[in-house]
Amino acid sequence: MTTLGAMQHWPLRVMRLVDHAEREHGDGEVVSAWADGLVTRSTWRKIAKDARRMAQALEALDIKKGERIATLAMNHGSHLTAWYGAIGMGGILHTINPRLFEDQLDYIANHAGDRVLLYDQAFAGLVERMKPRWPGIEHYICFDPPTGSSGGAAGDWAFADWIAAHDGNYTWVDGDEREPCALCYTSGTTGNPKGVLYEHRSTLLHTLVEIGPDIFNLSKRSVVLPIVPMFHANAWGIPWAAPATGCKLVLSADYRPATMCRLFREEGVTHSAGVPTIWLTMIEHIESTGEQPGDLKQVTIGGSAAPRAMIKWFRNHGIDVGHAWGMTETSPIGTCGARPLGWEAMTDDEQIDYISRQGRVPFGVELRIVDDEGVELPRDGHTSGRLLVRGPWVIQRYFRAAEDSTDADCWFDTGDVATLHPDGTVQITDRSKDVIKSGGEWISSIDLENAAVGCPGVAEAAAIGIAHPKWDERPLLLCVRAPGSEVCAATIRNYLAGQVAKWWLPNAIEFVDELPHTATGKLSKKTLRDQFRDYRFADATDMVGRD
Ligand code: ADP
User: Fold this and answer.
1) CA-CA-CA-CA torsion sign (416, 421, 427, 433)
2) Residue whose CA is closest, atom 11 of ligand 1?
């Protein structure tokens, strides 16, 4: 017989976050910058009350515990309320990415079995087109108030009216901490999107860890503005982390850099997070207008590798960079780079090298690299292999899948190739399908791209492998010039020659007006490979010298 300890049983359930915020940080602000430019203010007290009203409204629609409530919306306070309202009544919150293709949207909502959809007016046209393809969705609720021509399609509820009919006298639905609370689909770069079903427990453990100093470093003194959509891996968990700390939360439906800079200054934002593409446009904006990002102290860059030049730029502006790696399947935080002991003794270059890698795991995440036979490889800072991960906020099995996606020891194959360093840092070499296989060895497309954007005049770069008769694949580098720049291929090539091994140098450099991005703002290598499927190097028999 198991003998239990004598401490309290306190299931790790998500609604405890709102209860805590309401009780301890009731006046704590949640600011919403709406798509039309309006800025509104709410508090955790009001959000908790409205979430209770919404839970009642869902029950009035006969929605039951465990059923899926979807959102198709940008970041704002009503969306936040809806997260907690849906989970509070025992439902599963399904955040849908509106940037997916309509076939994917069709697949996702039907696969999830969504019964209710809450959406932004901005997506009303999309919703109308999708309605015939979503037979399971019985109720449509528009977040925007019904003024003038806005407020959703005819017959749909407006969020404020829908919840106003209820008094908020409601007790959250209780249950086991391992019950599901949220569902998020990966963007499906290959095959159909796959659903990751988060639990109350996994979400709370992830929250407790990510607020710490080595990750988001959030406290009651912070003002955080995630520039990550709430449908992208739950805005990296920031809407859970804010009520845990009582920090001020600023949500914006508009990601244009001018709006961001204004919010940074006017709301006193200290912490922000986003993918490199977002920071790229922000840096360009600041450089061309001279606008300043106010009191911004820390940015977390993740989702794709943060280029060295970007890390340098932030440091030169007195802003700390945390470089995070993770995926929808890891809730999403897997690692983050923060200053280690001995930081002050490191040279400038050493510090940038350190942050250019993808950081260290927090307690709760375990990593290993293996070869193609599954044999563990050394953590020597040189050897690279398939990156496996496990831990209490890492996926076990995709939603509705018949089988686990892990091996018998719970290791999940991330699809990334990485090197583990003796100091505990991780270096993502590439996604296994993006790595350029040249003469039996690997060229990291990430490293080539990051080196290229360090060249003055290059705004963005992407490297893909092109079939080559002798070397199997060789790199093609596609560059977007910075506004006003006339940088040429020879200049970039000379610059790269000082940064990467000679045999890594691209066989060709082409200029494009823009590069394709995925629904989560990352370079879409798959689209690029399709676009350049028939591309051939001018001299495909070219010898590639090795250093
Ligand atoms: P998708 O990009 O398929 O929508 P995710 O948003 O979950 O799915 O992306 C996870 C992937 O993004 C990781 O497996 C990894 O390839 C990449 N990634 C995330 N963070 C980083 C980083 N800091 N550096 C390099 N790659 C990263």
Assistant:
1) negative
2) 327
